[in-house]
Structure formats: C-alpha cells, structure tokens
Amino acid sequence: MQLERIRKSFDGKDVISDLTLTINDGEFLTLLGPSGCGKTTVLRLIAGLESVDNGHIHLENQDITQVPAEDRHVNTVFQSYALFPHMTVFENVAFGLRMQKTPANEIEPRVTEALRMVQLETFAQRKPHQLSGGQQQRVAIARAVVNKPRLLLLDESLSALDYKLRKQMQNELKALQRKLGITFVFVTHDQEEALTMSDRIVVMRDGKIEQDGTPREIYEEPKNLFVASFIGEINIFDATVIERLDDQRVRACVEGRECVITVNFPVEKGQKLNVLLRPEDLRVDEIHGNTEAEGLIGYIRERNYKGMTLESVVELENGKMVMVSEFFNEDDPDFDHSLDQKMVINWVESWEVVLADEEHK
Q1: I need a surface site. Which of 75, 109, 225, 276 has the fewest CB within 10 A?
Q2: Residue ranges of the ABC transporter domain (predicted)?
C-alpha cells in the first residue's frame, strides 16, 4: 500500500501534513506516537472511514482514494470491541463471512480456526457479556482475520488488556500475522509494544513522520531528540566540541568531563551537542575513600529493584539526574548500592548517539 502526499484537516487545522508512506506486503508496521499525533487518523484514512483532503491512497496498484470502506478489502479492529451483543461468539466471527455469502460448509471450519488462533474455541456459544474484556478483544481480532483481508488495521487493540494477557497477545498477534501473511498496520502509543511486535515502526508527531525504521534502528539510532526521548528511557548529556580528531571521533567536554565521542557529521570548535546514552549502556562503579576515578562523578539518589535489573538514579556533581540500569548480580558485593553512595559513570566509546543540540542551532 502507498500513501502519497496525504493531507487531512479538521476545522481548518491540519492533522496530517503532506504524509507519504509505503507499507510493504506482509509486514507488521506500527504507527507510534503520542496522543493527537495523527496516527489514528492515518488508520481511518486507510480504512476509508475518513476522506483525504489531498493526496492518493493505492492498494496493490489500485487507486482506492475514493473507494468506499466496504469495498477496500481492509478490516479494522477498534479500541472499542464493537461486538454484536445478541449474537454468540461464533456468530460474531461468522458475520463477515455470511455477509460475503461464503459457502455454508466453509464457514464453520474457518470460524473454528480463527477462534482457535485466539484460544477461544471453547467459548464459541457464549454471548459477549459472558466474556472478559480481554476475551472480547480476541473475538474482535478473530472476526477481523477470518475474512483474510489484504490489510488488517489495529487501533490501540491491546490497550484494555491486563499486563500478562497483553504480553501474551503481542506474541500471538505476531505469530498470527506471520501465519496468515496479511499486512498488519498497528496503532499504539506504547513504545515497548511497538518494539516487541513490529517489523517496522513509523514514529509520528504533529501529523508528520519523525522517523521510519526497524525497531532496532529506532531504539539505537534515533534521528532526533523527540524520537530518542519517546522510545524508552534515555539520558541526554550536554557536550561542547573541543576539537575533531579524525573522520569519526571528536574530543568534547561532556557534562564537565573531557572525553572522545563518535560524531559522523561536521562540527566546529565550541559547537553544542547532545550525547545520548540508554541507561543499560552506562557502566557504574562505587568510589570508596579518596580513590581517584576517571568519568562522571555522582551520587545514588534512588534505587529501584526490577527483578533482573537494578535501576538507579545518579545525581551528577552539576545536579543533572542520570538513569542507570544494571543486570542483577547477587555475587557482586558492590552491586546493591546504598543511597548517597559516590559513583563513577562511564560508557564504551562509540556506544553513544550524538545529535546536534536542537536548542542551540
């Protein structure tokens, strides 16, 4: 599917601005962004539930911009389940097949298979009010995939589920997508969900695409501070260029510490930069007595035990708060740091992401 220079406004305000996007056949693509970024509007435009002001939408080389929703071969699973309360689970899932006049002998095996995929085959004769919210959501997904659409759109479809079921459904949806070979377009504001499920993530802000890439690219190589800050926890250090050493390396003053950083764009002496490091990319050691240590010096202000990891907040000597995540090691006597413990922070050279300082451009 291709969206070409799509524009959509409501009440004179642009919600989508000149958006161009290619959705590859058979991929799991996630539109990710904060509330109001336009991601659900893009989904509704693809589905035909809203009309575009400008631009074109193509599905398999056919211009479907003016094609009504019911003729697009696109199914949508909404945040609200929209099940028929008077019908059984089986009849809800079979509804679309009956509307398409599918032969009667095909309906039962297809519905049973769809319910088996979402682990609800034993609930076929129940009514929606007899199901939990999570079960209703799975019925909605079964109803959407039973028609084998070319494109399946999911609008915040797991948001009502409890944490454990949500994690389970993430894996099941991805496995289901691979099995069916249907293109999935998923809308969420949950970064972890996007990273877990997607082949490709499109990060949106104010109706525009900020970055388009694989989960790993989005997480490890953010293009700007918005993407970096929106996807997971990240530390943003202030830096000033001292000198360029070679094509890749620059000597810089980072939060008062002179060090070498990897910078793959032109810089000038005195230029302000942002050095980005994930909490898990930082290395910390305790400082005891008057020991001299090379690195950023700070003090433990908060500790959060997360099972596999220990997350600490370290206050640098200049007042900046830094998040550090360490894998739990019960054999290390220095691991479970006490509050106010003096620490030194370092990282492996080239693990940092360096961006031009957007405030000082």
Answers
A1: 109
A2: 1-231
